[in-house]
Amino acid sequence: MQIHLHASLRRYCDNQASIELVGSVSFPQLLANLVQEYPALEPILFNQHQELNPYILIYVNGQDARYLAPDFIIPEQAKIDIMTSLVGG
Question: Which domains, from first to last, does the chain contain?
Answer without folding.
Answer: 2-84 (3.10.20.30)
